[in-house]
Amino acid sequence: MTARLSDWFNKRGWAALIIWLPYIWLVVFFLIPFVIVLGMSFATRTSTAPPFGFGGEDPILNLESYQRLFSDTLYIRAYLTSVGNAVVATVFCLLIGYPMALGLTRVSSTWRTILLMLVILPFWTSFLLRVYAWMGLMGTNSWFNRLLTDIWNALTPEAWEIAHVTMMNTNFAVVLVMVYSYLPFMILPLYANLERLDPALDEAAMDLGSRPLRVFWDVTLPQSIPGIIAGGMLVFIPACGELIIPSLVGDASSPMIGRVISDEFTSSRDWPMASAVAVALLVLLVVPLMVYSYFESRANAVKATKGAP
Amino acid sequence: MNRRPLFLIGMLCFGFAFFYIPILSMILFSFNDSRLATVWGGFSTKWYAELFRNDKVIEAALLSLRIALISATFATILGTMTGIAMARFRRFKGRTLLSGLVTAPLVMPEVITGIASLMLFILMAQWLGWPAQRGFTTITLAHITFSMVFVTTVVHSRMIQADVSIEEAAVDLGSKPWQVLRDITLPVISPAIFSGWLLAFTISIDDVVISNFVTGPGNTTLPILIWSKVKLGVTPDINALATITVVIVGIGVIIAGTLLQRAEKRRLRDERMAYRDNL
Amino acid sequence: MPDAALAPAPAQTPLPFVRIQGVTKNFGTFKAVDDVSFDIQKGEIFSLLGGSGCGKTTLLRMLAGFEEPTAGTVWIDGQDMTSVPAYDRPVHMMFQSYALFPHMTVEKNIGYGLKHEPMTKAQRADRVREMLDLVQLTPFAARKPHQISGGQRQRVALARALARAPKLLLLDEPLAALDKKLREHTQFELMNIQDRTGITFVVVTHDQEEAMTLSSRLAVMDKGRIMQIGTSTEIYEYPKKKFVASFIGSINSFDGTVSQITGPEALIDIPDLGSPMRATAIAGLAPGQPVTLAVRPEKLSIGRDRPEGANVIRGQVEGVAYFGKDSLYRVRLPGGRVLSVSAVNARRAGEHDRVADWDDEVWLAFAPSSAILLTE
Fold it and tell me: Is B188 within 8 Å of chain A by CB?
C-alpha cells in the first residue's frame, strides 16, 4: 500500500501538489473576489448589512449602476482625469527616463553598478514616504517653494509678483509625484533593453556616415521600442488606478478614478456602484494590456526563432 | 560622439537630483528643532526620541513586521510552486487560467484588489463564520495572494533560464521527482527564491491600500498609521521615521551590492582558474 | 580485457543486449521516430547518425526513459523497459550540455547517483575515487563545475554517468562542445574507457567522422527512419540507399539504366557520360532497370594521359582546391556535369607541375569494383 502510494506520488502526485495547491489558493483569494465584484456591479444598493441585494425590475441583470456611470458626469470626468494624468506622467517618465537609461549604458561599469543601485534604492523605500517627501517640498512655506517663488519674481515683471507657487492639491502635483514614484519602472526595463543592443551596430551606422543624432534616430530608437512599451505600461497602468498620490497631493474637486471607487465603497457604502466603476476601470486597462501582450508575444517569437539551434 | 554623452550625463545628474533632493530634504528636516516641519529652526534629535516613545508607532511597526514575515514566507512557498509548475509542466488542465491568474494581480489596480478582497472576507464571515474578525488574518491572507505572483514571476524566469537537462540528469542517475526537486531544482533556483521572498516582504511591509481595506478596527499597520497621519499634513516625527527607513534600506542595498560585486570577482577568478588548468 | 571492478553485471539472457522493436514516437502529428527496429550487441559502441530533426535524439531519450514510445517495445538486457521510468533504468546518459549540477563539487557530482545504491559511505567514497582516477580528475575533486575547463567538465559528466556501472551508457553529442584538438584526444579516451569498462555505448552524433572513427557499428537515420545499419566501412563503401551515399562523405552520382549483365558485372547506360560504364552488379538487378551509379571522389583517378581499360571519362579542370596532403579537382564534362575528384599529392610539386591544373584537358577513370549501384 505504501509502495503504491509513493509510486503514485512519484508519477503524478507531486505534480498535482505543486500545481493545484497554489492554483486553489489563487482561485479562492483572487478569482472569486473578482467574480464577486462583477456580480456586485449588477446588484442594488440596500440599507442592510452587507449593503446590497438582488431585486428591482430585472432581478439578475440590474444595469442601474452602469447607467449612472454614463449619466453622472462625475464618473466620466474622473476617468478622463485619470487617463490624462497617467498619459502625461508616462510621457514625462519617458522623456526623463530614456536619456537616463541610455546614459547608464555609456558610463564605466563601476559607475554603472553604483548608479543602478541608486535607481533601485528609492524603489525599496516606502512608496508612501516618497509621496510624503514631495509634500514637504511642495508646501507653501517650504524652502523649495520659496526658491521657485524667488526665481519667478526675479525673472518676471513686478506686476506678476506672487507670494508663493501653488503646487499642493493640484493635478500638477499628482503628475509630478507620479513621475517621481514611477520613474524607476521606466528606467529599468529601458536600461535592460538598451544594454542588450550591440554597440557594433552604432559603430556600423557611424562607419556608414551617420552623425550621432542620426544614429540614435535610425538605429538605437527603433530597437528600443519594446523597452519603451514595457516601461510605458509599467507606468501607465498603476498610474491610472492610483489612489494614494491623488488623495495626498491631488485636487479633491477633480478626483481620479481610484479615489472614486474608494469613496463609493467606504463613504457612500454603495458597493454596487463601486464595483461598476471598478469593472469599467478594468475594461479601460485591458486595451493597453492587450497591446503590451501583443508586443511581448512578438518579442518572444522573435527570440524563439533567433534562439533556435 | 562627443556631444551626446555630455547631454546624457547632464540628464543623469538632473535625474538623480530629482530622485534624491526630496529624500535629502526630508532627512535634513527630521533633525529640525521647529514644530513647523518645513521651516528650519535649528538642529535637534528630539523627533527621534518622540518617535521611540510613541507606543502606537512601535505597535504598528511590530504588526507590519509580523504580517510581512509570515505573508512573505507563505507567498514564497506558494509562488515558488507555481513558478516551477508553470515552467516544467507544459500541458495540464487549466494552464491558461493559471497563467492568467498569476499575471492579473501584477497589473490589477490596488483599489480593486482591496475592495474585492474585502467583499470576499465580509461574505465569508457572513456565510462561513470565518474570518470572524478582520485584522491580522485578513491582511496576511490578502498579502500572500497579492505578493505570491511576484515570487512566481521571479522564480519562473529563473526556471526557464535553467538548463532542464540537469534535472533530467538527476532523474537519469536514479532520483525520483521529489528528490530531484530537493537536491537539484531548489538549490539551483535558491537565489531567485530568496529575492522572491525579499520582494514579497517589501511589498507586504509597504502596502497601504489593500491593508487599509481589509483591516478591521484596532489593527493598524505602520503604513496605515503613516497614511492617516500624513493626510493631515507634514509632521516632523514622520520625517524621522522616513529617515530611519531610508537608512535601513540604504544599508541593505549597500550590503547587497557589495556581496554581488564580491561574487562577480569570485566568478572572474574561477574563470581564470578554469582557463589556467585547461588541459 | 575489461576491468572487473568497473564492469556491469554480466548479461543474463541470450537475447541481444538491446532490442528496439517497432518503436514509433509521435509528437502531435509529427512522427519523430517511425517504426524503428534494431539490435545492439553487448560491448558495442553504437552510433546513431543523422541531421538535426532525424529522430536520433528522440530515440536516445526513449532508451534513457525520458520519452515513452507511442508504439513498440524497448528491451534492455532481456527486460522490457518500455514503460520503466528513467530513474529505475540501469541506463545512464552523458548530456550534450554535460548537465553538471552547478551547486555541487566534482566529487559530489560523480557521487550523486551512488546515493541510490545500497552502499556504505566508505564504499561510496571509494567508488568516487575510482571514477576520479579513471578520468584523471583527482586533483580537481573539490572544484565546482564553473571552476574547471570544458574538457574537464566533459570528463566529470562521463565519470558521473559511469559511476553506477550502467548496463548501457548513452552519449548525446559527446564531443560537440569541445574544440577540434581536444575532440581527437577525447575520442580515443572514450574508446579506451569503453574498452576498460566493457559497458555498451550508444552515441548520438551529427558528425560523420566522429561516428565512423568511434563506433563499431552505426545507424544512419533520416526523417525518423533507419536508412542503413552497418560498420563504418559498410556504410561508406557499400551504401544501400542514395541518402546514405550522399550523407556520408561526398559522392558523384549519375542516373542511368542497366543495359546488360555479364557475370559479376553490369553495363550501365548513362546519358550524362556518353559511353556505358561497367560496375560490379548487385543482387536483383535486371536489364532495363533504372539505376544510380555513384563514385566517391577519391576512387576516380585523374591524369593528362588517357588510361587503359574501362570507365574512362574526359573532362576539363575547372578548379583546384589544395589541402596539402591532397587536392580536390572540379572537372567539367563535355555534357556540362561537374565532378569532384580527389587525389593524394603523393609527390612534392610546385604550383605549376601538379597532376593537373586549371583548364587542363584531363582523363578520369574508375575501377568497376569501386562503382556503387543504387536502386533506392
Answer: no
List beta partners, residue C372. Answer: C294
Residue whose C-alpha cell reads 456591479 in the numeric block: A41
Say yes or no to pLDDT of A205 above 90: no
Between β-strands C91-94 and C168-172, what pairing exists: parallel, antiparallel or unpaired?
A: parallel
Q: What is the predicted pLDDT for the residue at A289? A: 78
A15:B116 CB<8 A:
no
CATH 1.10.1040.10 at C18-243, yes or no: no
Q: Comparing C-alpha atoms, which of A101, A60, A301, A93 is closest to residue A190?
A: A101
Q: Chain B partners of A29 at a C-beta cutoff of 8 Å?
A: 117, 120, 141-142, 144-145
Banded pLDDT at B119 (limits 50, 70, 90) = very high
A234 contacts A116 by C-beta, under 8 angstroms: no
Indicate the helix (H) or strand (E) that contains C229.
strand C225-230
Contact between chains at A137 and B25 (C-beta distance less than 8 A): yes
**Adjacent-strand bridge partners of C19:** C39, C75
Neighbours of chain A (3+ CB pairs under 8 A): B, C
Query: Of C308, A1, B264, B275, nearest to A9 (Cα)?
Result: A1
How many whole angstroms separate alpha carbon C133 and alpha carbon A162? Answer: 87
Q: Tens digit of pLDDT for each residue in C299-315?
A: 999 988 899 888 999 99
CB C21 within 8 A of CB C73: yes
Which CATH code is given to the segment(s) A73-269? 1.10.3720.10
Determine how many CB atoms are found less than 10 A away from the CB of residue A140. Answer: 14
Contact B11 A139 (CB under 8 A): no
Structural domain boundaries of chain A? Answer: 73-269
CA dihedral sign, ordered B63, B66, B70, B71: positive
Superfamily designation of domain C250-374: Nucleic acid-binding proteins (2.40.50.140)
What is this model's ipTM? Answer: 0.91
CA distance B13 to A264: 43
- Domain covering B55-233 in this structure, CATH number: 1.10.3720.10
Report the residue of chain A nearest C83, measured CA to CA.
A11
Contact status, residue C33 vs residue C23, Cβ threshold 8 Å: yes
